[in-house]
């Protein structure tokens, strides 16, 4: 992927991606933000883009399609140069989460296991899709698995243990799916 770290991929420790710089909006350096995290962008807040701290000088648009003007980005060319770069913030600056909530980036690196505990692979990326996020699970010696982040596909998640359980039958994978298909 072009342009800087991917969410959860090469994000520096202690930070989280709260969106990605999209196309320029107008001539003054404002940009659209793609993949925004709810409640994470704030007027006057500070984000790190391409290794540089920048204050949010203007916040417009909607929560789902924000438009921001960042300090030091003073024209369309400067805005376009940041296209594809992540907006990073320290985790300590994010709004608090409820006990059963998590940031999708927290799932990257977790071990995926089948319901019986058999290793499946490792979560390599959280992929934002129109209907729900999905987990790209890398599996040694097998094609990667794209797991929708829904309770039917991921019935158990334990951040402290570093694991998530994948229902392979729901995913149409493995022996469980073959048994279901044969009526056994």
Which short descriptors sum up this protein?
disordered N terminus; 184 residues; Elongation Factor Tu (Ef-tu), domain 3; 2 helices; 2 domains; SH3 type barrels; six-stranded mixed beta sheet; six-stranded antiparallel beta barrel; 12 strands
Fold and architecture overview:
- It is a single chain.
- The protein is mainly beta and 184 residues long.
- The chain folds into 2 domains: 15-93, RimM (Elongation Factor Tu (Ef-tu), domain 3), CATH 2.40.30.60; 104-182, Roll (SH3 type barrels).
- Helices cover 8% and strands 40% of the residues.
- The protein has 2 helices and 12 strands; from the N terminus they run E-E-E-E-E-H-E-E-E-E-E-E-E-H.
- Strand 3 (46-49) and strand 4 (52-61) form a beta hairpin.
- The chain is elongated, with a radius of gyration of 19 Å.
Please give the number of β-strands: 12
Q: Under CATH, the topology of the largest domain is which?
A: Elongation Factor Tu (Ef-tu), domain 3
Radius of gyration computed on alpha carbons: 19 Å
Strand content: 35-45%
Order of helices and strands: EEEEEHEEEEEEEH
Largest sheet geometry: 6 strands, antiparallel, barrel
CATH class bucket of the largest domain: Mainly Beta
Distance between the ends: 43 Å
Shape: elongated
**Tally of contiguous helical segments:** 2
Structural class of the helix and strand makeup?
Answer: mainly beta
Percent helix among the residues? Answer: under 10%
Mean pLDDT: 85
């Amino acid at each position: 992927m072009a342009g800087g770290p991917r969410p959860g991929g090469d994000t520096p420790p202690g930070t989280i991606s709260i969106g990605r710089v999209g196309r320029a909006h107008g001539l003054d350096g404002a940009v659209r933000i793609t993949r925004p995290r709810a409640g994470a962008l704030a007027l006057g807040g500070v984000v790190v883009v391409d290794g540089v701290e920048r204050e949010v000088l203007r916040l417009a648009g909607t929560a789902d399609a924000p438009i921001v003007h960042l300090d030091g980005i003073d024209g369309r060319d400067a805005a376009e140069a940041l296209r594809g770069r992540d907006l990073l913030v320290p985790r300590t600056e994010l709004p608090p989460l409820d006990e059963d909530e998590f940031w999708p980036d927290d799932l990257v690196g977790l071990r995926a296991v089948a319901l019986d505990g058999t290793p499946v692979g490792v979560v390599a990326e959280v992929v934002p899709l129109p209907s729900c996020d999905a987990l790209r699970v890398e599996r040694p010696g097998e094609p990667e698995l794209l797991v929708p982040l829904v309770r039917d596909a991921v019935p158990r998640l334990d951040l402290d243990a570093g694991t998530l359980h994948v229902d392979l039958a729901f995913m149409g994978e493995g022996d469980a799916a073959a048994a279901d298909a044969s009526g056994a």
